[in-house]
């Protein structure tokens, strides 16, 4: 049995943060009904990679990443009938997740204050760039946010890149994905609380807040010392980061002195391990111009595998810098079941990244594919809300669905 079986979630969602949240809930057994606009749907359906099958039918890999295990319907909430159907769904659901611009749901007459009167047990998670809960409204509340914007404002980009170069994006939609994770965490807590009190609640998830929380190292350093950590050489830890070898790069980190002494033995330089000039991370960082050539010289004639094995054998944390192909072929990732096969109606059998969570009494199952646009209209409207076929056809003709 999955932990969230019997929980129904309405995902009025787009792109990444909302869909990632509801995908996590669906993975654990929740029935997720993804609500999209008629005709166009989630804008993620338009984003690459766009792959065609032999018939020329297109599928978006971007959309597939975040929407498996969901049922999909279309609904135009701008129309009165669309609003009515949304409210009917809320009556028979446990959770609403939405990540549209702040104020949209309120202006549509479907905000939390309205919906909680329809269903007092409703848990409503609103994901936005800068947060929107009353009492916590900042000056950026109404801004539209994208992942790169909040990575920039939250300080992560300031930490990444060459010392004299420009700030760099991290290369992943961390603000979106982590906000989805935090929203699912909040929903889980709210479900536990509802089990005790019988009441639902509103959950306010801010991408900016989440990035700030991930930047805790630099912010703690500033709080305690007044110093600002920036991109380039780390001032607190050394050795750290990627190092070039014969066929690519390996990464290692030396966080404590016992591991520094182990590295010195691997390098054949035990004298460095007892030298007071190098007996702390900040001291070694200050002497990087002396130490770096010693490490580079030892690594230069070794392959990634050779260097990794020699370091790990002596207790030095290290790993190869891998690309996507390397990870797909990694025996450990395979043993951890980190790739799962899914039968997509357009592309056939494909492999996707699996959810990382393992639980002893919750089995991992083969996921259902992401829904086609409006695929489950008749099932949800007919079976769940008891509309007749004639009603459904009428709604189609009127553009409600």
Automatic annotation (TrEMBL):
One annotated GO molecular function: CoA-transferase activity
Lineage summary: Bacteria, Candidatus Schekmaniibacteriota
Keyword line: Transferase
A UniProt-annotated Pfam family: CoA_transf_3
Official protein name in the record: Carnitine dehydratase
Keyword Membrane: no
KW Lipid metabolism (keyword) present: no
InterPro entries: CoA-transferase_III_domain, CoA-Trfase_fam_III, CoA-Trfase_III_dom3_sf, CoA-Trfase_III_dom_1_sf
